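Posting this for the archive.
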Amino acid sequence: MEPKTTIYPLFNWPVMVCGESYQLTKKEIEYIKKLKLRPNRQNQISINQYILNTAPLKSLKKFIQRWINRYAFEFLKIKKDSIKIFPTLSWANYSTKGESHHQHHHGNSFISGVFYIQGDNSPIKFHRQGSSAYSFVFDYAEQDIMNSETFWIQMLPGQLFLFPSLLPHAVDANPSKSTRITLSFNTFISGDVGSKANLNYLKINENSDYKEKK
């Protein structure tokens, strides 16, 4: 009997589209729409970079924290008693018609996330980190997640995406008159990382800057 042919997608970059949506209240939406803005490269972002620490978004932060924990402890299988993962910087992004979000990744962060608030026809585009695994560029008969240099995933209002912070991503120009609004955030860790036996032990304390402001 011939052995079964198997392809292993080794060392992939796990992008989680959370299977639960969060319905923003009118007060939450009004708060986000009234935030003071500053120019970004190709759109605008909120001046406040700790918006998940504000009282109006307390409930949304709990929802996001629950899914961060699921990503880390249930999907990545990190030991629950070893570390705590928490949001650090958090801000809102605003793209009017014709505006886009440049390709970037999130430095000094473990897991990053995007929460979709408002907009039409604006999928998030993930980019393969580095060059192709094969060092050649081909014309493919069919493109899929295994051979693509970029991969689009459509976002819907109330949907949360979580992904490794080093994964490059972008959003193309907004084709709609409706402003595209998203909330982005970084995370970091506190607790015990690594082991003394392997000479990579590190103890990280949580910074009070990232705790909820009253």
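Helices lie at 26-33, 58-75. The longest strand covers residues 180-193.
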